[in-house]
Amino acid sequence: MTAATPATRPGIDKANLAVRVGSALVFAVFFFTLLYQGAQPWAKAVFLGVLALAAAMGVHELTLMGRKLGHNPSFPAGTLAAWGILVHFFLVGRDVTDPLPLWAVLAFGAIVIHFGALFFDRDLDKALTSQAITWMGALYMGLGTGFIMKLFMFTETTLSNTGGRLVLALFLITWMGDTTAYFVGSLLGRHKLARRVSPKKSWEGALGNLAGNVAAAFVIRAFVCVQWTAVDAVAIGLLLGTAGQLGDLAESTWKRSAGVKDSNMGSISIPGHGGMLDRLDSLAFAAPVFYAYVHFVHGLN
Predict the structure, then answer these.
(1) Quick one: pLDDT at residue 6?
(2) Inter-CA distances, 56 with 112, 140, 150, Å
(3) pTM for the full model?
């Protein structure tokens, strides 16, 4: 690794920062209200709808990147399979008898993706890669949003609105790390983290990310998940921070391979934040890790 001179540091883009903060505040009001009412049945149904929309947008963006590379992934098939996985997590959170088993969802996805291509894919010469991208979109968005839904569906423990508290923790810890990484990387970044994938990311930013994750976890411990110990706060902060950054780098490799800057590629975008994948890449990796922690360490099912 080589150190960059101060003149080569990107600095803070104040105009873009203002747009990012403005759009984030608008979404924050909506999400915080929804999570505060998380114990209400209507809140869980609305949250399912929000995640279903997010999953469809994410599959659409992956489909656009695949098509830019000359493949022909199926947006409808990928979305239906992703929705099936998401609904599985929603229903299993309401009924322990598992009314929609995951194996049935995956079997349905296989039928839709593979047999559907026989009738609707006009370029079967690229069937292998096209269907692989379709599956990746379905699994990535289905499992990513599905585990967020699973966390939200947790019923009451000794604390009220357990699901809302956990999802609030997931969002704040992950996004606080992203925010801290942005400022630390912009102001202090010298050593490149992954030059081939994302030239702007630095080791200083990555460490700032983890510091922000842990600090946010202690704030959550103090005001939201008051049963957490200091060990929980440190462990959850580091785990979510590491998983989130891996997710961000993974999505960066996809954009790099497709030669695009933002995942939405000129389609629907979040002002100052790019596409849906640009917002969910960290959460899609962090949510399963967070669920594993509260399940195996705290015994939540």
Answers:
(1) 41
(2) 16, 11, 18
(3) 0.88
